[in-house]
Amino acid sequence: MLPVQHPLLLSLKNHSRASTLLDRNREQKRIKKIGCLTNQQTFLQWIINQKIVYRWVFFMMTISSPALGQNYDEQRVPAYELPNPLHGENEKPIESAEAWVHRREQIIDSFEREMYGKSPTQKLEPQYEVTEDWTPALDGKAERKQVTIILSRQGSTSKIRVLLYRPIDHDQTVPVFVGLNFIGNASIHPEPRIRIHENWTIGSEDDGVIDHRATAASRGKKKSRWPLAQIINRGYAVATAHCGDIDPDFDDGFKNGIHPLFVDEFPPAKTSDAWGTIGAWSWGLSRILDYLEQEPKIDHTRAAVIGHSRLGKTALWAGAQDQRFAVVISNNSGCGGAALSRRKFGETVHRINTSFPHWFCANFKNYNQREEKLPVDQHMLIALIAPRPVYVASATEDLWADPKGEFLSLIYADPVYKLLGTHGLPINQMPAPDQPVHGTMGYHLRSGPHDITLYDWMQYLNFTDRHFNPDEPR
Ligand code: GCU
Question: Which residues pair with 81 in a beta bridge?
Fold first, then answer.
């Protein structure tokens, strides 16, 4: 076990109140939208129409009430011991890069078996259907391409629709950010030629999503999360797809999305260590990278996998498994992502398994309120990425995601980064808000709420520049 360093780090206690108020404000806004009972409706119809039950469940899921057992007080974080990535049980300590290779496999196995579930071993022969070839876009600054990855097996077909942008004036291949989006490709920019997908999606009417289908009103609704102009201006491409193309984000016993293609390997509900939705999304990111390997205008050797929140958890698991991702970026990924589970701060294992029973494999539920029994913790997920550059970002008001727990994962993965000959993380204290720190590992704590903003992207661009273009003056 790894001795846990003592409260060396900046206390985030003072933000707890702000976050609680924020949750309350959000809830009040939701309640306002519920609307009034009209006399043409029965009370029951009204309840159904207004989705009160759904809203109430959602409220209960996210509210930061101590009555639900959520802790936001640093003083109430239990004493805990972390498993040591460099010392397996009953084994010799790992002291060389060669010995790490075997230990790494053990850690991957534990994450697969106990948490994210195993991904399929079968290789598919994808077809790539180009629905729009490189076309001038973004006022002539970029070119855009849309391609569908068609995956078939066992009589089922799944389609991942990839949207690509790259700078128009680059003769050479360019590095690329690869990440999934929440409600569809059309949400990342209002350009009218971006196809609107037909799959089930999360998202509200405010996002232009009606009955779980994205409408024309969804165009550009999430553009603040994808600052394409700035990314293109810095010489990078973007490749994105809707996470729902790979697996719709609801619990259906793993029957829809990509799952039917592998029903022989993972019969629904029979395998306690079969991939959950986060496993499926991560696998999908690797399929996008397969496509990029044969796309002549993109440099797939300089691919940074990126994700926000649940898709940040996904980016980390994708980057941990698939070493072709040269850089891995997690934005506000929290529980099941970068945050240490044993701290039980903000969202806990029990809470995430209850609210989102489909994200992880069935075995993960064995650790509800028993985090200390997990053979791994999230610093080991970061360690699996070593020696490749990894970036973790938090936000001051996002206590649900436990910023301190996210930072500590980097601290406790650092010995693996150092063993593999990198400089790891250049600090051992949590930096003040808005003071990014960039080494082989990067970290910042942005002021503000749970989100991915232009500020976050600017730090990621600086970080990837440092690793992808080390010779350029800075
Ligand atoms: C919920 C969930 C988090 C997740 C977030 C998101 O808040 O509890 O684990 O990261 O949704 O994906 O937006």
Answer: none
CA distance 448 to 396: 6
**43 confidence band (pLDDT: 50, 70, 90):** very low
**Local structure of residue 180 (DSSP, 8 states):** E
199-214 confidence digits (pLDDT tens): 899 999 999 999 999 9
Which atom from ligand 1 is nearest to the alpha carbon of 310? Answer: 12
- Whole-prediction pTM value? 0.88
CA of 184 to the centre of ligand 1 (A): 18
Domain residue spans of the chain: 26-63, 113-468
Residue 77: closest CA among 413, 343, 466, 364 = 343
Quick: pLDDT tens for 379-429: 999 999 999 999 999 999 999 999 999 999 999 999 999 999 999 999 999
Query: Quick one: fold of 113-468?
Result: Rossmann fold (3.40.50)
pLDDT at 14: 28
Pocket test for ligand 1, best of 19, 23, 204, 310 (most atoms within 8 A of CB): 310
Q: What is the DSSP string of 139-172?
A: TTTEEEEEEEEEEEETTEEEEEEEEEEEETT--S
